[in-house]
Amino acid sequence: MKLKKSINTATFLVFLIFMAVEAQAFKMVSVSVDLLNMRSGPGAKYEVLWQLGKGYPLMIQGSRGDWYKVVDYENDTGWVHKDYVNREPHLIVKKNLINIRSGKGTKYRVVRQAKKGVVFKTMDRARGWVKVKHEGENVTGWVKRSLLWGW
Fold it and tell me: Which of 24, 54, 96, 124 has the fewest Cβ atoms within 10 Å of its own Cβ atom?
């Protein structure tokens, strides 16, 4: 009986370590400034690959000093300085055209549509739907979660 308990404890500890590593590997951030350069390496001397707007969600893959190695919704990778991102949740449209609805479900009226690449602030989550806000257009509504990338 003691051997079984030891194995269960060891398995649980390995699980906790794995989850901690996974949580760090998939940490999400969003751009906190109006325009951020995503670079080819961890420093200001590296080539600018992309310029990202405020709220743009990114997934951290690693870090070196004050720089995060990140990936975006199109699987593009690069480096951003940690001072220009935060943990404010945002989502980006990953389909060509989506409906923004007045409620959580396809029976609610469409209040607006959004194209691929549009960034939204995450307001609420419920049953496979996300309440989003586009600050520039002052639009708020619900979108099916599977149509978006981020958190």
Answer: 96
